[in-house]
Amino acid sequence: MAATPKTALLVQVDSFQAKVWSAALASQSITVIQEATNVDLGVMLEQMGAAGLTLPDLVIVDMASEGMNPFAFCRFCRNQYPNVKVLLTNSTQTQITESEQRWAISQGAQDLLPAFQTSSLLTDLITALGQTTQVLGLPILDQQALIQILPKLLETPAVPGSEAEAVAEAPAPTVSQPPAPPAPEAPKPQRFYRGRPY
């Protein structure tokens, strides 16, 4: 009997982070459902449960989502839907302190992960998906599948924190007028000696 495919509900503020997560999860045969950041996830889970729909196995939520308390959502899932695991991300941070991570876990999150960076994308993906597959109880991470999606992910222009973003945000060159020709030199003053120029 084949294992039931796992489903992840993805809520990310940053489009690059969403693209990386979506491609990476799909590379591991995890079904991805992307939701807008303004959706009330608690109400959504309640409606899905009431309608008899299968709840996602994992919710990956960006802490930068406006109008949402990610820790309250973690506590809600832990109390109301213990089979729905929550993985928090922070698209505004490239590093997470140990105290932030401990706090997130104490609130019911499985982990708190930093934003993906293009300079260390493969390492970041292996770390994030290693944690994700462990939470979902999946077999070992398919690193070869991750490596295959890297070139496409790195083609993404204007990645936060990259040189491409700096180039994209640089002001467009302006057309300037050619410099005016130099003004003619004023004639040198004549010197006089005893009333006569020399």
TrEMBL record:
Residues annotated with 4-aspartylphosphate modification: D62
Keywords in alphabetical order: Phosphoprotein
InterPro entries: CheY-like_superfamily (IPR011006), Sig_transdc_resp-reg_receiver (IPR001789)
Pro residues bias locations: 176-187
Bias kind Low complexity: ranges: 161-175
SUPFAM superfamilies: CheY-like
Location of region: Disordered: 161-198
GO process terms (BP): phosphorelay signal transduction system
Domain Response regulatory, chain residue ranges per copy: 7-130
Keyword GTP-binding: no
Name of the protein in its database record: Response regulator
Species: Synechococcus elongatus PCC 11802
Lineage: Bacteria, Bacillati, Cyanobacteriota, Cyanophyceae, Synechococcales
